[in-house]
Amino acid sequence: MKRLLYLASLIIIFMIFIHGVFKINNSSYGCDNHILKNSTEKPIIRKPMIFIHDVSPIYLNDLKDIIKIINKYGYQNRTYLFVIVNHANKYNIEKYPKFVKYLHYLEKEGYHIEYHGYNHIGYEFNCSKTVAEEKLNKSFKILENCGFDIKKIKYFIPPRYKISKAAEEVFLNRNITIILDKYMLKKENNSIKKIVINNKEYTWYLPKNCVKSVELLAKIDYISSKHQFCLSIHPKAVNYGGGLEFLNYFLNMTKQLKSQDQS
Ligand SMILES: [Zn+2]
After folding, report:
1. Which of 2, 129, 192, 218 is the least crowded, having the fewest Cβ atoms under 10 Å away?
2. Which residues are in the CB-under-5-Å shell of ion ligand 1?
3. CATH number at residue 105
């Protein structure tokens, strides 16, 4: 067992090293090098955006533990809650008043209520325009019935980052920005703008003994990022093992670096 752990640590350290080298190469010579005028110019450090995926009544307790850490660092205004309105066709938020009340409380505290899906089954927005319209209308009706102002919804993450061109149009026509794993799509002055982002997730059931290595990796990613840095987290997955310890580290680290923020 000890030998196995030792081997796993060696592999992680090696991966971090390779990752670091790759990052350094990328920042000087990669496809984005036009953003940096010369290799000595420092990448811009922006405040991260925190995306909480799968906000659903089944994860209420997990969500509360995540929120405690975000509050500690005052990241309420930088945190976006992506709600599933009828998760697995079982958890219609209208039937969970305690959950809805909690989301309203969070919204008052500065958190943003955003949209993630109707039932989150499969690639639900890899669909026709008609189906996308139907799902979105049904979802927004549920959100309105729960007292949310749908005009405030500005962002949408499609389940599993999968969306058809037809469904993209539906969201963009309603001035909702679509967030994917590597970029955002936004409608501006009748044209579609593609904004590159650095959207990372480190806490998919992160074992406790890997926290330190992943913290180092995230710091390298964050500091070398030339685009808006976005931290994606999933309730339950982040609550496992060393996930919350990582979240605490990450928010603290980015807060310390905030003074260098140029955005
Ligand atoms: Zn999801």
Report:
1. 2
2. 53-54, 159
3. 3.20.20.370
Distance 163 CA to ligand 1 centre (A): 13
Please name the amino acid found at residue 22. Answer: F
Q: Give the Å distance between the CA of 159 and the centre of ligand 1.
A: 5
pTM of the predicted protein model: 0.84
Q: How many domains does the chain have?
A: 1
Q: pLDDT tens for residues 75-111?
A: 999 999 999 999 999 999 999 999 999 999 999 999 9
d(CA 223, CA 251): 13
Q: Sign of the CA dihedral 16, 204, 235, 157? A: positive
Encode pLDDT of 136-150 as tens digits. Answer: 999 999 999 999 999
- Residue 12, domain member (yes or no): no
Measured CA distances, 134 to 117, 131, 151, 159, 234 (Å) = 12, 5, 18, 16, 26
